[in-house]
Amino acid sequence: MSQPKKRKLESGSGGEGGEGTKEEDGAEREAVLERPRRTKREWDQLYYEGYSDVSVHEEMIPDRVRTYVYRPGILRNWAALRSKTVLDVGAGTGILSIFCAQAGARRPARVRCRGQRHLATGSGTGAVQRAGGPGARPAGTGGDCGVAGAGGCHRERVDGIRTPARVHAELRPPRANQVAEGRRSSPAGLRELFIAPISDQMLEWHLGFWSQVKQHYGVDISCREGFAPRCLVGHSEIVVQGVSGEDVLARPQRFAQLELSRAGLEQELGAGVGGCSCYGWAPGHGFAIWFQVMFPGGESEKPLVLSTSPFHPATHWKQALLYLNEPVQVEQDTDVSGEITLLPSRDNPRRLRVLLCYKVGDQEEKTKDFALED
After folding, report:
1. Do 206 and 344 have their domain in common?
2. In sequence order, what are the beta bridge partners of 141?
3. Which of 162, 180, 201 is at the close of a domain?
4. Which pLDDT band holds residue 207 (cuts at 50, 70, 90)?
5. Model confidence pLDDT, tens digit, residues 312-350
6. 181 assigned to some structural domain
7. pLDDT exceeds 50 at position 92
8. Using N-to-C axis directions, what is the helix angle for 95-102 and 64-75, rounded to 10°?
9. CATH number at residue 268
């Protein structure tokens, strides 16, 4: 994987975005400048409040791809958990604490925000004891989640930690820095990030909709067709949406490996995307990013793979889509190359910013700056 050249990123205040070859929209820039600035503590509080709504957990727990990797990932490593005290930071409903109790943990200690205490009602002492036997006891603490460690009164020595990852790559508001929920529950695991050019079939239908109105209703409003790309893809927002393997135009490129037990994305992460050749003729609408992580499978067991690839069963993470300002036509063996840089937004360190420099075929190199919307 080639190393990227250092590029000077344009200044901005969190709402970064735009294409390097286009003139910035003055109204949008003025709106960004008028946006009230929040402190890090305020951003942290908004982040944690995002987990206090039960609908968020209703989305995560039914994600069988996710849960069917987490549960065996814990149970197969029972030897490392038996009779141990495990601290579950960011416990939410407490389901992973119960999995730890099922694996033989003596005391799953749960840490969550004050506003999330109601989520674990019914999954406390009784549920843990039913899962792990009478010797299993939960310890719950709640504190000010704006403070590292979440505060609280738990003073017992813990033998293992299950805590949210600190990597800015899930790309899903309001939890943009949580790639997956297992930073140290995967002590030997690596998070791998992939990128690939895509042709979004649904987007293509929307872009061509206005030219089809006349044949249905006898009214020609195809003049709006030129305006549609500005509304649908002319923005600089990172779009969280699922695509299928059929939408991928070329072989995916792995552009980063992150060791979760030691590193997060507090600083810039850049990588070159080597040239990849397109499979066939199609309109190229942008790029998709996704991640994959491996959990240790336990003694004599194969590692467990959690993938959010469009070639695998869908997850609640979906993929992160970076749309170009206008489609680019590609054909068999069209070369696509470039550089991608991930870094925290200036305004909100929990939001991701992506600087994409790309070249398609013989076209000139372009740069577009993406950000997650609040």
Report:
1. yes
2. 111
3. 162
4. confident
5. 999 999 999 999 998 999 999 999 999 998 888 777 777
6. no
7. yes
8. 30
9. 2.70.160.11
Bridge partners, 335 (sequence order): 277
Residue 24 is encoded by which pair of tokens?
A: 């910035």
- The pair phi, psi for residue 325, each rounded to 5°, is -65, -25
Q: Is residue 6 part of a domain?
A: no
**Angle CA(26)–CA(30)–CA(31) in degrees, nearest 5?**
120
Final residue in a domain of this structure, among 124, 146, 162: 162
Please, what sign has the CA dihedral across residues 3, 348, 169, 267? positive
Q: Residue 49: which CATH number?
A: 3.40.50.150
Domain match, 77 and 23 both: no
Q: For the chain, how many structural domains are there in total?
A: 2
Question: Where in the sequence is the domain holding 157, given as residue range(s)?
Answer: 42-162
Decide if pLDDT at 180 tops 60: no
Q: Would you state the pLDDT for residue 168?
A: 29
Residue 122 scores a pLDDT above 90: no
d(CA 272, CA 341): 9
* Residues 259 and 327 reside in one and the same domain: yes
Q: Where are the alpha helices (H) located in 184-280, listed in sequence order?
A: 201-208, 213-217, 228-232
pLDDT in tens, 236-273: 899 999 999 999 999 999 988 877 665 555 556 667 67
As beta bridge partners, residue 373 has: none
For residues 231 and 16, give the distance between their C-alpha atoms in angstroms, rounded to a whole number. 18
* Phi, psi (deg, nearest 5) at residue 352: -90, 145
Identify whether residues 135 and 88 lie together within a single domain. Answer: yes
Q: Rounded distance, CA 250 to CA 278, Å?
A: 5
